[in-house]
C-alpha cells in the first residue's frame, strides 16, 4: 500500500521567490489592483510562473510592494 503524501501535490507550489515578483514590480506606482499588477508585470516581460502567481492574488487594492510580497509569502506557505 502506498503512503498518502503529507502535502497535496496540486496545485504546485510556486517555484520562485519574492525577489522575482519584486523585480517585475520594481517601478509600479501604487496603489494597484490585481489586474494593474498583472498588466505591469506583462509589460516588464515577467515569467509565466510570476504571472500565474499574480493572477492568484486576491482581488484587492494593494498599497505597496510590501503588501504584495506579504501576500506572496502567505500563498507560498499555503502551497
Quickly describe the structure:
The chain is mostly helical and 79 residues long. The chain is 51% helix and 5% strand.
What do these coordinates show?
By secondary structure, this protein is mainly alpha-helical. The protein has one domain. It is 51% helix and 5% strand. It has 4 helices and 2 strands, in the order αβααβα. It has helices at 18-24, 34-43, 48-56, 65-78; strands at 32-33, 61-62. It has a two-stranded antiparallel ribbon. Helix 2 (34-43) packs antiparallel against helix 3 (48-56). The chain starts with 17 loop residues before the first helix and ends with a helix.
The overall pLDDT, averaged over residues, is: 80
- Share of residues in helices: 40-55%
Main sheet: strands, sense, barrel: 2 strands, antiparallel
Q: Rg from C-alpha positions?
A: 14 Å
Classify the secondary structure makeup into a structural class: mainly alpha
Treating each run of at least 4 consecutive H or I residues as one helix, how many helices? 4
- One letter per element, helices H and strands E, the order comes to HEHHEH
| Spatial strand sequence of the major β-sheet | 1-2
Total beta strand runs: 2
End-to-end span in angstroms?
26 Å
Strand content: 5-15%
Query: Judging from the principal axes of the Cα atoms, what is the shape?
Result: globular
The oligomeric state is single chain
Uncertain regions: pLDDT < 50 for 5+ in a row?
Answer: 1-13
Tally of distinct domains: 1
